Amino acid sequence: MATTKWAIDPTHSEIGFKVKHMMFTNVSGKFGTYDATITTEDENFENAKIDFSADINSVNTHNADRDTHLKSADFFDADNHPKLSFKASSFSKIDDHNYTLAGDLSLRGVTKPVQFPVEFSGLMKDPWGNTKAGLNISGKINRKDWGLNWNAALETGGLLVSDEVRLQIELQLAKV
């Protein structure tokens, strides 16, 4: 079998997350600068090898003060830990459109195993003859597992920022 390399198409991809704020609304953010090495056997994504990293300084929640706070030692500590990374240990097929992605997520100097459901949209040729693949990765992590512990109590009870972070990652891959 031949090895196929894939690259993320940044104009059709988004590395996003959502966190509850004040226990009742969501704040969305994304990373604008990231890189990945993805290889498959031919065009079969089962057992794909995936290495991914994102630049912490590229975090964007559409609020400059919040972004600065997220980059600080209270959260990501970008000065000491400028990247988050993910290295897949398995990419297992459930059926034609559903996979499970497992691997190690490294953030703020802490590495923990994670597992996420992936919706595989299949392969398609674009109008210029390029082979594309679509992946939708979702899941949840507890930010405290990686030492992102900062919070503030609310007068009404509860906390300002939820521990749960929901990941929403849309990837369009281009066959290299």
UniProtKB/TrEMBL annotation:
Name of the featured protein: Polyisoprenoid-binding protein
UniProt xrefs under PANTHER family: PROTEIN YCEI
InterPro entries named among the record's database cross-references: Lipid/polyisoprenoid-bd_YceI, TTHA0802/YceI-like_sf
Domain of life: Bacteria
Xref: Pfam families: YceI (PF04264)
Chain ranges of the Lipid/polyisoprenoid-binding YceI-like domain: 5-174
Gene3D superfamilies for the chain: Lipid/polyisoprenoid-binding, YceI-like (2.40.128.110)
